[in-house]
Design brief:
By secondary structure, the chain is of the alpha+beta class. The protein is about 25% helix and about 35% strand. Strands 1-5-4-3-2 form a five-stranded antiparallel β-sheet, covered by helices on one side.
């Protein structure tokens, strides 16, 4: 399994980030996932087809450090010796750009989603 890890300190509270990670945000980034909380507002695990990982939230100065990890199955071993000898290629991995998707997820989590002071007249 290939392992990827990205982390970033975000200027948001742990409960705010937790609510987004428990919702659909992780599924939108990685694909359909099943999320399980290990320690509320601190650690969760997720599983998708062909990948699994964790999200860990830690207090850090003025914000929260978010560390996302992913382990992706590699399909090279699933192709037999004779198939490789005949020149068959292994199937493309489902999560070949997982590191980029996790980095984009961190950027999305760090951005403001609402305008706190909107004026209605």
């Amino acid at each position: 399994m290939a392992t990827f890890e990205v982390s970033k300190t975000l200027v948001k509270s742990a409960p705010e980030l937790w609510a987004e990670l428990e919702g659909d945000t992780l599924s939108q980034a990685v694909g359909e996932v099943e999320v399980r909380a290990n320690e509320p507002e601190q650690s969760l695990t997720w599983e998708a087809d062909g990948a699994q990982g964790t999200a860990v939230l830690e207090p850090s100065g003025w914000g929260t450090k978010v560390t996302l990890t992913a382990e992706v199955e590699e399909h090279v071993a699933n192709l037999g010796f004779w198939a490789r000898l005949r020149g068959q290629k292994p199937p493309e991995p489902k999560h070949q750009d997982i590191e980029q998707k996790l980095t984009e997820l961190l950027d999305h989590l760090g951005s403001a989603h609402r305008k706190p002071f909107t004026r209605t007249e």
